[in-house]
Design brief:
It is built from 27 helices and 18 strands. A 6-stranded mixed beta sheet has the order 4-6-7-8-5-9, with helices on both faces. It has a 5-stranded parallel beta sheet with strand order 13-14-15-12-16, sandwiched between helices. Strands 2-1-3 form a 3-stranded antiparallel beta sheet. By secondary structure, it is an alpha/beta fold. The longest helix has 22 residues.
Length: 658
Amino acid sequence: MRYFECKVKLTNEIQPRTDEGSAVCDEIARKCDEYCDMNKDSFCGCVTYLKGRECVFYMSGNGSNAVFEAEIKNFWKMLKLKGKIEKIAEMPVDKVNKALRNSRHVDTPDDIEELMKVSAFRYTDIDEHIVTTDGKPELSDYADFIRMPELKAEAERIEACNNTEFIGHPVHYLIEGNSVDKIKKTVDVLVSSLMKSNRLESGRVSYIDERRVANSRGNLIENIYENIGGGTVLVGINTVRGENEYADTTDAMIEEVCKHALKHRNDILTIFNITRHDVKAENAIASYLKDELRLIQLREAAIGFTECISYLGELAAAKDIHNTGELEKKLDPDTETYYISELDNIFNEYYNEHIRNTAFPAYADCSVFKAKESKIEGKAADELAEMIGLDSVKDVINRSVNFFKLQQAYRDRNIVMDNPARSMIFTGNPGTAKTTVARLTAKIFRDNGLLENGRLVEVGRADLVGKFVGWTAPTIKAAFRRAKGSILFIDEAYSLVDDRNGSFGDEAINTIVQEMENHRDDTIVIFAGYPDKMEGFLAKNPGLRSRIAFHVDFPDYKENELLDILRLMVKNKNMKLAGDAEDKAHEIFREAVKLHDFGNGRFVRNLLESAIMGMSQRLAGQDLNNLSDEMLVTLTADDFTMPKLTTQKDDNRRKIGF
């Protein structure tokens, strides 16, 4: 379907509010209604504005410019108004919809939106424009300028196959490029060239991508293909974005587009735009097209350093900049090649600085908003850094944050990378701060934009495994819903594993793996427990191990670290340690670390609570009124009791490291 807006300069004035003018408007409305009924299978026309010496009417239908020009004259003759058609312009469907809804002075037919086939787009945000042949560069010259040799070769083929009339599309196109604006400009030049050679009937171009498809009403893809006969559909596909925000839309969109591209291969041009090196998108398109649609691939060429200088010089000359020394310094001499889109970004940044510093020097010193440095931010990160010991744990958490921030940067720049797993395993003995670090990790990820919330949802076997058949899967799905945008912390995860295959535990693990995939982008799972038992847990389901990004081993605290923890706990209670108390505690810790599962941080907490009880007993027989404040808050060696230490620590336990 094609749409044309026609503007007429009337010979005589028409005033709709007069009796004579009102009668003319009613007669025009009747004739439009009659014309649409008579030609509804081919053309439709209606007047949307009639006042004074101005008249505007719209025509819809299919055919070449020559066919439309003849039909427009027939419609105007049928109206029997005197005047000259001064302007005829093809219009996108959204402008037509707006004009029909806002018609003035002349009543349009009640079913005009259906007759002109625009009703499907009434509440849809579409991206359409009309390409003309005026003012566009020659495709061959443009291809040379943007260093796209495959487009240059296609320009030569188009020129060699110049036709006298449109007969169909021998090929369609797949363009690689990360800048949507640059791709749209390239498509406009290509469409203009095809129109000049009668390879396209219409300059109408409609752009669709995952966002528009996901947010539209009805079947947007089908509606566009059924409506845009003679025009071009530009399809933006980004599997990186699809894996993030539109995971359920991207593949279905590719399949639907390919289906309609095949159906309309001869009357509608389809151009796919994928991001650079997006092999996943290429394979999906090829799979759905099944070699039934020939695609010409158009890609940016990576150009060498010398040619980069030449290209930047051309951009600068177009802006009347001839001293390009500072611009050339923007290039990294160690980078051998650049893509044109990268050079465009370099030049645009330079040109913005040039305008501010040269054309408007008064603004040269004005501060600007700058992106935050890529560092781990937030109070929680500071708290983790201040925790005693755990150097290896801190290192892995910091690396995980930086790694995931890099993946986010890839997605923001449309750089195609595999979407990595984000879940973790924390292994260590009781009291090694696994839960505390998990809580801080949730907040750190939130503070650095990697998670929406900073909550930690803690669950165990009793919270996940149902008592009866069919209860487990819904229970686990509910836990993932609660943890959406945050961290799901599964403590003693190996307790989910039963000795019998096919039990409730197996169902729990299988469901967890499935939900981890379903919530890959919005939820992080942390499995926690003893090192040796966690290895058996991972072996239970092969798909589980592949979804773990980081293994974090929490070592037992050393005796000096335990003493530092005691000092911190005492300080937080506004108490003090006498010198002999520190020596006594250090001696206790030296023996405690020899124990297997001695309790680590919990051991320190219990020892301190026992010491406070000992101090209470020691002071109970004294007159408290005669004691100084210092004596009331100071723990002595007598307050610390050496516990019985019987089980030797086993240093041969298997651990899972990063």
